């Protein structure tokens, strides 16, 4: 009796492609479908045995680790990851890492045990060295973990430049950037590089504050602004915030403390997630990341890595960003 | 050689409890832990065989089906479902049903094949009859699917009463309620009952509009308001919206069309999800559901059903709501 592997070999496609044709998944070309069906007929293959052999081979489940799925940016990202996965016959196992390194590790263990076929890593807690030794499919969002681990993210450097140049063009003379922690090797740190270089090129005073990674909530940001950012506000006239919720918290702080935005202080955010698009007052000036495309590419590329069994053909991808003008500048 | 089942029987606990002790999961009492360890010693059980027998028995994975995880309400609900599941040693498989009945069905099939141990159903597409025949752990959010399928939700009827009485107490004489589709047997429809009965008791003119289930986005709601709600706005002075994003879309529509809120039109929403709590202008008057507790109970109860193998001890639960006063009334 022949196996699904024989069918795949005969049709010159992957085992998963055969499985998908048998399960009537979408996104299979008519040509591929016919090729698989021809091989099934030629070899007299009985798909009853398919499920078992496939489940031995891989789980068709992708682990997705993000800091917090209730944050509007990640909520939207997960939606597009899941939709693309589903369209390709995969399901996602969702993990909010919050501040717990153990949760990240438990997912890596699932990957090692082949209980998940691959991992999309959007969290930032474990030291990068930990990942170097794992020769299984991992893709990251906005973080460099090693040469064999591709990442997908937005063009953070250009985003930082665009935001900063816009503040300068709007008349700012002394700027502050509030970034994530630089100890984590996230691609998002390049926003700070773009900020710094633009300030230097324009001969503008600047400061950079790093907030340490904790909960990504409005209340947390507001508290941070009150304790750490507010003493600096009298010295500056423009702030580039590393995300929109932070920018909104700063706007609200200013409104509550009679600091006029944009007259006295100009604010630019980053993300343009669903929350920012919904928000009508104020419309925050921000850098828009293409969140649906990032989610789609994370899914498509991890699936390619899972199915090819190789990482060679999957490259890191950096997606363009654009400035969206609101009323905070 | 004895099995994990023998240990469970000897210690008078479930197989999963034994597995958790062996895997060092949190939330096991010291007493239970010791009882299990004693039985392991007494029976000379070697946990090497545990993983295999456990995986045969159940997957420790809960399927979670919701309409759209990027909607702020569901984003927050999923976060609390996942956190509680994780604390009890379970992982969640996330599905955005969007408008696709096939996705709901595919999860039910996973449940039948024991690829997931239980399902939390927060989506509303498939006819309830479909569920009656499945004798496996299912719990729903805000929907009655049958006597053996418990649901967790907020006290929708009281929520509807509170919202409506508040509009009347604020001086409204002619009210509109925009509800979800009544064809779906959701508990949320009781908001309409609460609305209706309060209007009747107070001898107030009222109308109810049902919007058909589609995408839960601001843009969709705005379009719906433009085409369907706006012709009625001249006849009414208060609206009870079935969710906050809808209430916000109505507020924005009014602002864009010179309808003064709350002077000419008063608006009450429902949910008090993260978006509403973040939103500073306007602070929407709304009915607050205890989303973290709902998420926690959904997880805890489905896990109890999975581990007991019985549904008898799990009852539907309706959680209290409260009015949060904003500036839209």
Task: Please state roughly what percent of the residues of chain A sit in beta strands, choosing from under 5%, 5-15%, 15-25%, 25-35%, 35-45% or over 45%.
Answer: 15-25%
Would you tell me the overall average pLDDT of chain A?
Answer: 86
Q: Which sequence of strands runs across the widest sheet of chain A?
A: 2-1-3-4-5-11
Q: What would you say the CATH architecture of the largest domain in chain A is?
A: 3-Layer(aba) Sandwich
Structural class of chain A: alpha/beta
Please outline the major beta sheet of chain A.
Answer: 6 strands, parallel
Number of strands of chain A: 12
Bin the helical content of chain A. Answer: 40-55%
Summed up, the helix count of chain A is: 13
Largest interface: A-B, 34 and 34 residues
Query: What is the CATH superfamily of the largest domain in chain A?
Result: Response regulator
* C-alpha termini separation of chain A: 70 Å
Write the layout of secondary structure elements.
Two copies of one chain form a homodimer.
Chain A lengths: L3 H8 L3 H8 L7 H14 L6 H8 L3 E6 L5 H16 L3 E6 L4 H12 L5 E4 L7 H4 L5 E4 L9 E4 L1 H14 L4 E6 L10 H12 L3 E6 L7 H12 L8 E4 L2 H13 L9 E6 L2 H5 L6 E4 L2 H18 L8 E3 L2 E3 L5
Parallel strand pairs in A: 1-2, 1-3, 3-4, 4-5, 5-11, 6-7, 6-8, 8-9, 9-10
Antiparallel strand pairs in A: 10-12
Helix pairs in contact in A: 1-2, 1-3, 5-13, 8-9, 10-11
Quick tags:
Rossmann fold; transcription (chains A, B); 329 residues; DNA-binding (chains A, B); homodimer; alpha/beta; 6-stranded mixed β-sheet; 6-stranded parallel β-sheet; 3 domains; 434 Repressor (Amino-terminal Domain)
């Amino acid at each position: 009796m022949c196996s699904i592997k024989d069918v795949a070999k005969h049709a010159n496609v992957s085992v998963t492609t055969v499985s998908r044709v048998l399960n009537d998944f979408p996104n299979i070309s008519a040509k591929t479908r016919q090729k698989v069906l021809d091989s099934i007929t030629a070899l007299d293959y009985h798909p009853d045995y398919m499920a078992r052999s496939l489940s031995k081979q891989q789980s068709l489940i992708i682990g997705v680790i993000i800091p917090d799925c209730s944050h509007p940016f990640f909520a939207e990202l997960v939606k597009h990851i899941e939709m693309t996965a589903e369209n390709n016959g995969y399901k996602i196992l969702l993990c909010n890492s919050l501040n717990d390194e153990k949760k990240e590790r438990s997912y890596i263990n699932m990957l090692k045990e082949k209980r998940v076929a691959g991992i999309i890593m959007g969290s930032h807690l474990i030291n990068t060295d930990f990942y170097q030794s794992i020769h299984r499919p991992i893709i990251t969002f906005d973080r460099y973990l090693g040469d064999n681990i591709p990442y997908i993210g937005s063009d953070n450097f250009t985003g930082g430049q665009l935001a900063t140049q816009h503040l300068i063009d709007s008349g700012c003379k002394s700027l502050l950037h509030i970034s994530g922690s630089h100890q984590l090797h996230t691609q998002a740190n390049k926003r700070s590089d773009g900020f710094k270089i633009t300030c230097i090129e324009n001969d503008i005073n600047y400061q950079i504050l790093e907030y340490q990674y904790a909960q990504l909530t409005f209340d947390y940001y507001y508290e941070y602004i009150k304790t750490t950012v507010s003493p600096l506000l009298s010295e500056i006239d423009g702030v580039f915030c590393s995300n929109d919720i932070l920018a909104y918290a700063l706007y609200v702080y200013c409104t509550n403390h009679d600091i006029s935005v944009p007259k006295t202080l100009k604010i630019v955010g980053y993300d343009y997630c669903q929350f920012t698009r919904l928000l009508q007052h104020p419309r925050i000036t921000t850098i828009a990341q293409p969140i649906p495309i990032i989610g789609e590419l994370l899914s498509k590329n991890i699936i390619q890595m899972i199915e090819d069994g190789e990482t060679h053909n999957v490259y890191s991808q950096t997606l363009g960003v654009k400035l969206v003008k609101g009323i905070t500048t």
